């Protein structure tokens, strides 16, 4: 098991470094001068040159790359050009909101996906099955922002059960936090829930036809035990893979949801930082997302190996 984990850990290092390298090159090779943008139109050439020297932008790109690589390895991300504060102080509040949004969305997606997929498989070719399959197709076909606007119209504007936009941190209380995170998380998780529903249904149908399930039923075991203890564990293996991909998708695709619901998240911050050409903040944001994705992928691999021990020895 330790050898398997060490191998998986080494494999996630490129997923952290490659995105950072691409961001470094794209930011520095794209047109525009961040020093000039930061100081404004009234700045003199001398002021712009002084700021470029302070930020290291007057160095050749390979020199900038070596300095950047050393700073990344030591987690010295520098100061944000816009906020004039260390990047490591700016990012955590924004990252916390996005992680909370993605985590709640993923939990909702897994709960609905596994439950509906299992029910659909057990009620195959019945009205419940057809309704679940049709809903899953619609969930996959429609974009998250459409669901977000629909949820706002129904539950915030019409029924007034939730606020239209805004964010309350967990420190404000569970009810206050849930009231502002539930709709965005639901909008973000609906599409992934639909994918998991279809995956769980297909996997469960295959498992229910396995000989050991037939044997368990022939021995007189309760159906709840056959499904819950034997069938669901095996059928959940493909869903674990989908959940890992969904977590990455949610972290990367939360921008539209954060903008629609006015959430102060990392995705929204990154969009604004790119517009300001805030190099250190963009790189810090990408590093944060890459690290979270790497940890998630490692966790999914561990769960996958626990569900199916054969994977550890492949």
From TrEMBL:
Keyword Transmembrane helix: yes
Principal subcellular localisation of the protein: membrane
Pfam families registered for this protein in UniProt: BPD_transp_1, BPD_transp_1_N
GO biological process entries: transmembrane transport
Top-level taxonomy: Bacteria, Pseudomonadati, Pseudomonadota, Alphaproteobacteria, Hyphomicrobiales
Gene3D superfamilies linked to this entry: MetI-like
Chain ranges passing through the membrane: 9-29, 94-119, 131-159, 171-190, 239-266, 286-307
Protein source organism: Martelella mediterranea DSM 17316
GO cellular component terms, semicolon-separated: plasma membrane
Family in the record: Belongs to the binding-protein-dependent transport system permease family.
Protein location: Cell membrane
Residue stretches making up the ABC transmembrane type-1 domain: 95-304
Record carries keyword Cell membrane: yes
Membrane topology qualifier: Multi-pass membrane protein
PROSITE patterns: ABC_TM1 (PS50928)
Full protein name: Glutathione transport system permease protein GsiC
Superkingdom as given in the UniProt entry: Bacteria
Keywords from the named record: Cell membrane, Membrane, Transmembrane, Transmembrane helix, Transport
